[in-house]
Amino acid sequence: MVVTLFFPIHLRGVEGTLTDTMHAILTGVGVLFILLAMGFGAAAFGKRFRLYSIGTILILLVFGALAGLDGPRLAANLPTPWMGVWERVTIGAYLLWVVVLAIGLLRAQVERSLDGLGGGRDS
What we know:
mainly alpha
C-alpha cells in the first residue's frame, strides 16, 4: 500500500502525470498479489474457509469490475457517484478476509501449543 505514498493520484480536473499512471499500474499489481495471497490462504484451512475465500474473491472481482467501469468517466472528469462505494466494498471485503485469516491462524497456533503441552481438547 506504499503506492499512495510515492505515487499519489491527482484531483479531478488536474491534468494527469506520471504519478497517476504509476498509481494505476502499481495498484493493479497489488490487486494481483492480493488475489494470489487469497488463493494460497484458501488452501490453509478447511472447506468453510476455502468457500469463504472464494466468495470474497468473487466480491473483489465483481465490485472491482464495477469500479473499473467508472475509469473512463473518471478520466473524462465526469461524475462517478458510486465508484467510491465499489472501492470501499472491495477494500472492506479484503480486510475482513485478513481478519478471518488471522483468527484462524491464531486458533491453529493455540491448538498447536496446547497439543504440545498435553492439554489438547480431549483433556
